[in-house]
UniProtKB/TrEMBL annotation:
UniProt name for this protein: DNA helicase
Top EC class for this record: hydrolase
Keywords: ATP-binding, Helicase, Hydrolase, Nucleotide-binding
Residue ranges occupied by any Helicase ATP-binding domain in the UniProt entry: 21-186
This enzyme's EC code(s): 3.6.4.12
Pfam families per the UniProt record, alphabetical: SNF2-rel_dom
Matches recorded under SMART domains: DEXDc
Record carries keyword Lipid biosynthesis: no
InterPro entries reported for this sequence: Helicase_ATP-bd, P-loop_NTPase, SNF2-like_sf, SNF2_N, SNF2_RAD54_helicase_repair
GO-annotated molecular function: ATP binding; DNA helicase activity; hydrolase activity
Amino acid sequence: MLLTRDMMHPYQNRASDFICDIAGNVAGGCALWLDMGLGKTVSTATAASDMLDDFSVGRVLIIAPKRVALTTWPLELRNWEHLMHLRFSVIAGSAKQRTAAILQRADIHIISRDNVQWLVRMVGRQWPWDMVIIDESSSFKSQSSNRWKAMKAVLRTITRVVELSATPAPQGLIDLWAQFYLLDKGERLGATESAFKKRWFMEDREKHLIVPRDFAEGEIHSLVSDITMHMSAEDYLDMPEKIINKIEVDIPRERMLQYQNFERDMILEMEELDLEVEAENAATLTGKLLQFSNGAMYVNEARDWEVLHDEKIEALKEIVESHNGYPILVAYNFKSDLARLQAAFPQAVVMDDDPDTQLRWNNGEIPILLTHPASSGHGLNLQKGSNVIVWFGLNWSLELYLQLNGRLYRQGQKQKTVVIHHIVARHTVDERVLAVVGKKEATQKELLEAVKMVA
């Protein structure tokens, strides 16, 4: 049965009206920061439909993560009665297939963000879309990325840009300039990123970081609030309680001494394994230390790995046992983690692109689902399968962290609580990752609160 427009929630209509009101301005664009589960897809599609119907825009391009572009948007356009009249074409497949999809007569074209550079190169000055919707706009947060440069090249031919995100500032305020430039061509946050940084940031020379000045947060919030709407799931949905749990493990003493020496000297010598590993720089060292904390480390360029300890594996076994066979979603970081998890838990299934895997999970047929956060972060509904997440390997990305947690912590969750376990190796880089992600989340929450609209 098709869904009808009168079935949309009031907050979804408000979001749609906001897009029409703000993006309807010839000047430009708006940002819709809606928590996961609030239905930003149908709200935005409804606004696009209204603007197409009243001839405010002629053709619409939707840019989204691959899975979302291929499944979520087409499904939403087919599910709602008031959107059924829209002709849409998905630009995907081989170069020949993508070209054919561009030429197909349609009101809306949908493309994966990975193909944006190709699209701009292909279409060039004949760019036909006067409205562009960027789903998960934080993937355009870097002005040095090819996709951002491609969008900037055709920006003058686009009259309306709508950006959608649940995590607009995963690394902090520094992420905002590139996204807002695509909305207003530098009107609010400056014509260049260097000017943006000079005005609101300073260098912390001890930590080798760019940090916001004391007044930056308030000023930036104020400047972007007129074209930005945020809605929090807690304000509109019956959300489950979120329980955060840290499970600490101790690396064996001998291994811990090796870890500390490696952290200090950037060289790891293990006579019992007849190996020596050298970290070329600080970034490489941090990655190696994360691997060490998880229990296995790559030891050469061929990415061969050696097992160093099983403390996290044993902790996960205890978690699995304590949940008495109840399904658990496990996040891993490295392929070495995945191999060890598969060996330790032969009943586990790896998340893939097969829709049947998602269906089996939601039907309770998979006891342990192993996933990399980047593979399950966007466009998946996994909340019917479980309410338990275990972070076996921690990740620096706030966006991936929140997006994966949001697969279970969302409307439609059958349980009253969602439990998020973090397995943390004590006195290791794990503790720093958890602290940094927590700080990033706090900064983003302050930004979202500043532009929140509550009915």
